Structure formats: C-alpha cells, structure tokens
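Objective 1.3, modelling of assemblies. Example input:
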Amino acid sequence: MEGKLYGVGIGPGDPELLTLKAVRLMKESDIIFVPGTSPKETVAYQITVQAVPELAEKEVIAIPMPMSKDLRLLEETHERGAQTVAQYLREGKTCAFLTLGDPTVYSTYIYIHKKILERGLEAEIVSGIPSFCAVAAKMGISLTEKAEELHVIPAIYQIEEGMEQKGTKVFMKVGKRSQKLRQLLQEKNAKAVMIENCGMPGERIFSSLEEFPDEVGYYSLVIAKEGN
Amino acid sequence: MEGKLYGVGIGPGDPELLTLKAVRLMKESDIIFVPGTSPKETVAYQITVQAVPELAEKEVIAIPMPMSKDLRLLEETHERGAQTVAQYLREGKTCAFLTLGDPTVYSTYIYIHKKILERGLEAEIVSGIPSFCAVAAKMGISLTEKAEELHVIPAIYQIEEGMEQKGTKVFMKVGKRSQKLRQLLQEKNAKAVMIENCGMPGERIFSSLEEFPDEVGYYSLVIAKEGN
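Predicted structure (tokens):
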C-alpha cells in the first residue's frame, strides 16, 4: 500500500507555535523532508527538533528549494523534489514535508503537493501559523478589526500598487525593497513596523518607519496601517 | 503581584490545530475566559476541552461578546468584559482568554486586550491558525503563490469594491451576502469555494460557485481565485 504525504506548516520559528497535529504527524512519519541541502542544518529541522526530540532518530531528507524567479529552474527543482518524495510514498512510507509558516501562503511545498497529487498519490496540507499573524502578536497589534481589510503583498514583486490598498497592508520578503517601501509609506503618512527573522536567531524589530534600514534580510515583514 | 492575561488563539475548530503554547497556557492558567454566556456550552470551550481535558477542572468564565455593528453596545460590552478580567488579574491570577482562529484577525479579544493594557496590566497575544488557512488546507489549494496577493475582506461590510482586487480574495463572515457574492463572482468569471462552519459541527463545503446557496451561516468563508 502506498504511503501518504503530509505538508506540515511549522509556523514562524518558535517551536511552541507548532500545532498538536504537526507534532503527532512528525512522530508518526517514517520520513521527514525539509527544504534545504544539509538536513540537520536546515531552519525547519532546527526549529522542530526542539519540540520533537524524536526527529533526531528519524530519517531526515533535505529537498533543495532555491529561492529564484527563474521559472524553469524552479520547475526542474520541484520536479526532482517530487520524484524523491514519490519514491518513498511508493515504498509505503508515511512522509512529513516541513515548511515554515503555513503551507498555503507563499510556500514552496505547494508545488511538491500538486506534483504528488498529479501522480495519483495522496497528500494532505496541515496548517501552520503564518508569519504575519506571529508578527502582529509579537507587536501586540491587530491585523484587522471590524470593517478593515487585510492585504498581503509580496514585496519582492510589487509594492507601488499595493500602496493604494485600504486597511492593513502586510509586505512579505522585504529584503532589498526596504528603502523604497519606507519612502512610499512615509509619503502615505502610514504607521508601520518591521520584523526581520521573526522568532528565529537574528531577529530584529523596527517599531516605526523612521527606524527601517535601507536593506534587510529576505525574511523581513512589514505591517502597515493607514495614517490618521 | 498582578497576574498576566494571555489572549489565546485556538484555531478554526479542530482541537488538533491548537498550538503547544496554547495548550501549555491553558494548563497553567488559573482562570479560563471564553466568549459567550454559558461557559461550558461555548464553542471555544467545547473545542479546547477535547485537547485539554484539564479544562473541566478549571474555573471557566464566560464573557458576553455579542456580534453587533452598534458601536456603543460593543464599547459597553468590551468595557464590562475588561473589568471582569482586570479584577482577576489584580488578584494575581494567570488568565487565558480563548478566541477562535487568530486573535489579530477580526477577533473580539483584541478590544479586551487594549483595555487591559490601558489599565497598566500585562497582556500577551498568542497566535492561532486563522480560518482562511485552515479552509485552504482542507480544500487542498494554496492561498498565494509567487507574485500573487492575498486580500481578506469582511463580507458583512463590503464586497463590491473587494471584487476589483487582483490575486486571491478571502471573504469572511459571508452569511446573508452569499447570493450577492455568488452573482458578483460569476460576473468576474472567478473560481471559488465556500465552507460553512469549518472544522465545527454543521460543516458544509461548496466546491464551486454554482453550489453556493443564497444564504449561509455567519461563520462561512469564501476563497475566490481569478478566472482564466
């Protein structure tokens, strides 16, 4: 009988933000897949092993998932990843593929998921805490109240048009766009906070627009609210 | 010494989607607050007691949180709720206030949170899985990929202007707007799914726009993707 794949969201970095379901599935799985190249050095492994020490005894396999806008490179990488995962599923193994945050929000897991289903194999998505919820919690602010809308915008692609949205704006993967984002938000008289590497080593918090540096790491996230 | 309040997101309904932190804080708390009127009949209690049986032995206190657009009624209700919570904090009690989904996304907890901080007392937000992530996981679809934006729109307030957004649209609290929403999405040639009472008793899934009934319950959520 073929095995089943679970795409497990492990949340934003704090091991205590793992769900009970994520912990159970990691314990029950024969194989743990993590995005990266060196299994036990990946961020996903280092977060989860703190809550699930049993992982240290499991077969942990790294699946390369480069960050790239090169669609052909991405497709090749995902295809190779899916082949590896499918092979274990066909051997009847229960597999957990760990992914930071939530698997449905800008995760690379979703491409593996689709390719596994296309092969007629079974796969299930298991929700994790998305980074923007964790950042709002850490800053003690709400994302949305009453009639407010929430807009989540990948900053590496577009920020100018996102600027026109009403309600709360979340810019993800800020990186090199930090300076431009600060400038545009200042023109809008917005209030904003930024966190780099939320819940992970190297976390930095910038509580106001004025504090935003010109450049930050890829895993930086801005929450912007309309000015008064 | 004064106690501390934890605003604990309990996720969308499945007790296994509680985080480890939520479980620990419920076990450690002296007092458990739940939104509603009859403590052990509230949705929050009935979800969490399945994962944390110790709750049955705790002091569980219901805080009325009516759904209303009457701002004055809401303000009075939140003020009374905050007074009750503050009283226990001043007695040195550790308190957990349970809230469905995530406390930063359209939760009523956030008003209690602000009022507790205003009184100089300590409060912390603990993230939970937001309903839209759980729905996407259940339907096996992504919310956002690559450059896609995500727009979360409270359907009880506005749907017409939300219709113009690019990327993925999540309409929350659909209720009586179901028929109008179906019509507008059909005009846009969008693809959409709806879940009523996700992860709770009475869950119903509508896998395509054509299946959307004219009216659904308040806890209904639509995920709409741009048509081709």
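The radius of gyration of chain B is 19 Å.
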